[in-house]
Amino acid sequence: MALKKNPDGRDFIQQRYVLSTMGFMALAIGYVQRFCLSLAITEMAEQSHHTVHQNAKFGTVCPDSRSFGNTTHFKKEMEFDWDEKTQGLVLSSFFWGYVVTQMPGGMLADKYGGKATLGLGMLFSSIGTIITPVVARSYGPDALIILRLIIGLAQGPLYPAMSRLLASWVPVEERGRLGSLVFAGAQVGNVASMQLGGFLMRYTNSWTSVFYAFGVFGIFWLMFWFVLIYNHPNRHPFISQREKQYLNRAIDTVDPDDGKLSIPWKSIATSAPVWGLIIVQIGHDWGLFTIITDLPKYMKSVLKFSVVENGLLSGLPYIVMWLVAMGSGFIVDSMLSSQYFTVTCIRKTFVTIASVGPALGIVAASYSGCDKVLAVASFTIGMGLMGTFVPSLKVNALDLSPNYAGTLMAIVGTIGCLSGVIAPYIVGIMVPNSSMEEWRDVFWLSAAILIATNLLFLQYGSGNVQPWNEKANRQYKNSDINNENNTDSILKPL
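The structure assignment produced for this chain is given below.
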């Protein structure tokens, strides 16, 4: 982290970089806890089919080194006897809760700040992750579904609260690279849940280890979060005067700790750019959540990868996605600095790459047959290009309204993540036998949704600050002026 000299001679760490680093870790931990079950469930419950070659009844799955004739010899007996529909419910139940608390979380973050809103949510998420093995073993799938719903409730405020903090701390000219740093934490979390999860399960010989390790790490991170993070530069006791003055000049937002914001619901509900953002978020979430929750199952049930190979290769697309996100963040900031491109043009260009690239990649993977190298390469390149959504789609709510970024992100996330509720369940219904042909239909559906929603964003999306955001700034300043006048009148002698 860069150090700056304050006029009084002391060194200060620039606190917006501290916030960005801690925010990166928040997203990484949240996604690890959210999706580690996607890999663990492949070692908890067996797939429903027992054939390895093409036949009229089941379709195509690839042979593996343990296959003889038409029968698969599995290495071990699975602990739970859950069919594909039950597994789909377990995987999607997180999003049932996640949908519910995004709106309240965003409103609380806008009104009272994102620090406590995010921190308390991550506390309950970490505790829920730690107790997952006990609940699954002692009380069965129904109780696990309820627990995952609760973890979803806890993580609902994650994006809205983080967006509100960034709106108060990150100037628009730094939003590409610092926004990419923070939101790329999601890709690092995906990688950790897949790759570290695979190693933990392989070398501890237990699927329970991923939940204990990732849950405890979340508790450890929280101790630093509550000490180091503050809602607004004006409230931070460790910030240098130089950085505070710079941020106050560069960012014109209302301090949430003052509690003076009134949310313009009608203006938000009738805003075409807001609806453009909501629609493209639906498409993005459908494609992303389908791959995150179900790629490990495809790798194992169709391509026949072992748990370690599954973890490594399922995580590979997210490594590339993270690298693309970080690189494109710097490109976006450079394009803005050049003043040759508008914010709207940049956002639409990078959102389009993030939609078309994955659509082509996952369809290509579905036609790669049993060529494992080609399948992994197609998934990796296609999903890697989705990384351009970080400095575009993920920061667009901050573009439209810095003052209401938490509420706006909550609205967008709530409606968008309905995809996370529906997609795993739909996939479970579409792939009862986990054959290659069934999965191809799944990937075609995801590609169609990605392309269609992107076209609507090109029509209605924007990168400009909306008028109803500026109205809040005027009201806030007028309120301060009135308070000063009242104070003056009290102090004046009669």
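Interim note for the steering committee: Residues 1-11, 49-56, 65-74, 479-494 have pLDDT under 50 and may be disordered. Residues 307-338 form the longest helix (32 residues).
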